[in-house]
Amino acid sequence: MNLFRDKQIKFFIIFLFSFSLLIFLSSMGLNAVQEKAIQNLFLSHDKAIVTSLLEQGISKDVIAKAVTNTVSSQEGTALLVSIGITEHTSIRFLPFIAEFQRISGYFMLPVGAFLSILLFGGTFIFLWKREQLYQRAAKVITRFTEGDFSCRMPQMSEGTIYRLFASLDQLATILQSKNEAGQKAKKFLKNTISDISHQLKTPLAALTMYHEIISDEPDHIKTVIEYSEKTGLALKRMQQLIQAMLKITRLDAGSIVFEKESCRISELVLQAIGELTTRASSEGKEIIIDESSEETIICDKQWTSEAIGNIVKNALDHTDSGGEIHISWNRTPAMLRILISDNGSGIPPEDLHHIFKRFYRSKKSLDTQGVGLGLSLTKSIVEGQGGIISVQSTLHEGTTFILSFLTES
């Protein structure tokens, strides 16, 4: 039974069983003592009667018959009544009975007092320990309500009460997790808003300045055209910034469900670079796709192609005219890897561990295009699908990004 798994209850039940056994043994002992006392009292009573009759000259045969007689008569009862001995006679007038009562009291009162003290003592100890247990649990629950989940409910034994405590611990863990998730979400939202507002300050300030210049010189066509173009670029940068931040925020918040499907990597890559080939051509750069082997991958085609496109775009930003971007892929027993390499300026060692942070721009690439969100967005897309993104780079020689996806079994 679950009841006996609780050590305190088990010990209390053992105590009650032992107490009941002690009462039984005490009753047997008292009964033996009373039997002996009654025997001695009757012997004393018979001796006194026999002695009195002998002193009055009654024959021994008559006395023996009287002592062993077990039949009463009306004459005998009437005689006892005449001398004041009835069932209503006070015990104090019956010396032998009074003696028996005194002897019984000497034995029963101490035994009864001892058993009572033992019962109340054992019960008090059990209730006191239980109360201590409840007080400890109440203090822990109070800490839980105050938001402190570092304490744990008492778990010293088994039993129903401890299973209840274990359930409360589980509940506290769930509440702690939700509390931490809530705090993390608040911090995430605060940082996101801070990032967006900070990054929008520069293009907004530029737009304000361009508007003032155009307003001050409406008749200078060249000035209007020049700053209109700058306004368009600033607006385009703001649009890119807001779209990228919204995508990253949705990915980090887990509100995007990736719709995975089987697709050929060659088609995925062509979709990713579709809008970048024109730029590469105009800048005198070349995107080379290694199609020596055809592989398929299980992924969200739209999001994964965007991730690949972001890396290629980053490579174009850091590659001089005449540069090359190579895209290849291979399969290992456990992973399918997509490699995107360039022969551009490379990444300084001190920047290598920061390139996936939002808005991070190396001191050596402040004059390049972009808002510093492409690699961060790519990392969120790849890791959101259970993949891994890594980078290898040598300064002034080039960079290789590796997108690794687990092979579906």
UniProtKB/TrEMBL annotation:
EC number(s) recorded for this UniProt protein: 2.7.13.3
EC class name: transferase
GO cellular component labels: plasma membrane
Record's signal peptide: none
The Histidine kinase domain, residue ranges: 195-409
Any one Pfam family match given in the protein's UniProt record, by short name: HisKA
Keywords: ATP-binding, Kinase, Membrane, Nucleotide-binding, Phosphoprotein, Transferase, Transmembrane, Transmembrane helix, Two-component regulatory system
Entry superkingdom: Bacteria
One GO term of the biological process aspect: cellular response to phosphate starvation
Catalytic activity reported: ATP + protein L-histidine = ADP + protein N-phospho-L-histidine
InterPro entries per record: BphY/WalK/GraS-like, HATPase_C_sf, HATPase_dom, His_kinase_dom, HisK_dim/P_dom, HisK_dim/P_sf, Sig_transdc_His_kin-like_C
Regions crossing the membrane: 12-33, 103-128
Subcellular location: Membrane
MF-aspect GO terms: ATP binding; phosphoprotein phosphatase activity; phosphorelay sensor kinase activity
PANTHER family per UniProt: PHOSPHATE REGULON SENSOR PROTEIN PHOR
Name this polypeptide is given: histidine kinase
Organism of origin: Paenibacillus donghaensis
Source lineage: Bacteria, Bacillati, Bacillota, Bacilli, Bacillales
